Amino acid sequence: MAQDYPHGHHQSVLRGHGWRTVSNSAAYLLGSLKPDMVILDVGCGPGSITVDLASMVPQGKVVGMDTTSDPFEEGLKLAAEKGVNNVSFEVGDAKKLPFPDKTFDMVHAHQVLQYLDKDARIQAIREMRRVAKTGGLVCLREGDQGTVTFYPEVDGLQEFIDLYCKIARANGGEPDAGRRLHTWVKEAGFQAADINVTAGTWCYNSPKERAWWSSVWVDRIQQSGLKETALTGGHATQKDLDRLAEAWRTWGSSEDGWFAIVHGEVICQMR
Question: Model confidence at 14, in pLDDT bands (50, 70, 90)?
Fold first, then answer.
């Protein structure tokens, strides 16, 4: 298995993850939701998607699972704020899910597999298959760093993307996961006829979006586990990181700033 998630669970990371909702990060599965579904959200982080899913299955329930309970406080707080009471959180390992066979109507994971090495990610998908009911769904979405595009071409921004990918691969992961996702689920046992493949995007352009997205990466570069991984792994110096953080600030302050990334998506039918 890959080493620990390189970004850690610093507040800067949770702030970025907490922006995610079903509509902006899992819209591909909206047509598959039913009000009485029992759903597992693997690698749920601070639970923003988890709680959103729970609000959409009022007669069902959603379980958010991650390798540590550190981010669960955010999810519980969000659930309380939204009056969502059909959600819970558990600690577990995606490679050995702590649930019986055929437990869930839907198993969902967002931006999880890209951080695992080959053996671990295939095992994780097999575990998701195991705990999904016959007739159920396994729904996965992964970013693809090779599709990142931005404007204007600020010095240092592409260097940061390259550094991000270098760190991810050194950690055992695959940052260009999106384009490979459909092949991974087939390797894990799904048949091509049972896989619906789509693509989605994140795009940031408005002043509010630029300010938020750039500040998230400035904070991660300066404070999160990404910084420690870059430094201890010899991938960058502190001077390098300071310069790359400044590149994000420059991009964020550009009134013409634009950033987009493609994500691969699959909905796999259980037979």
Answer: low
- pLDDT mean over 85-98: 98
| Range 230-234, long-range pairs (CB < 8 A, 24+ positions) | 230/163, 230/167, 233/167, 233/170
pLDDT value at position 114? 97
Q: What is the pLDDT of residues 94-141, one digit of tens each?
A: 999 999 999 999 999 999 999 999 999 999 999 999 999 999 999 999
* pLDDT tens readout for residues 49-71: 999 999 999 999 999 999 999 99
**Angle subtended at Cα 86 by Cα 76 and Cα 107, rounded to the nearest 5 degrees:** 95
The answer on pLDDT for 205 being more than 50 is yes
Q: Which residues of 41-65 are buried (b: 16+ CB within 10 A; e: fewer)?
A: bbbbbbbbbbbbbbebbeebbbbbb
Cα separation, 96 vs 65, whole angstroms: 12
Task: Output the DSSP codes for the chain.
Answer: ---S-TTTT-HHHHHHHTT--HHHH-GGGGGG--TT-EEEEET-TT-HHHHHHHHH-TTSEEEEEES-STTHHHHHHHHHHHT--SEEEEE-BTTB-SS-TT-EEEEEEES-GGGS-HHHHHHHHHHHHHHEEEEEEEEEEEEBGGG-EEES--TTHHHHHHHHHHHHHHTT--TB-GGGHHHHHHHTT--GGGEEEEEEEEEE-SHHHHHHHHHHHHHHHHHSHHHHHHHHTTS--HHHHHHHHHHHHHHHT-TT-EEEEEEEEEEEE--
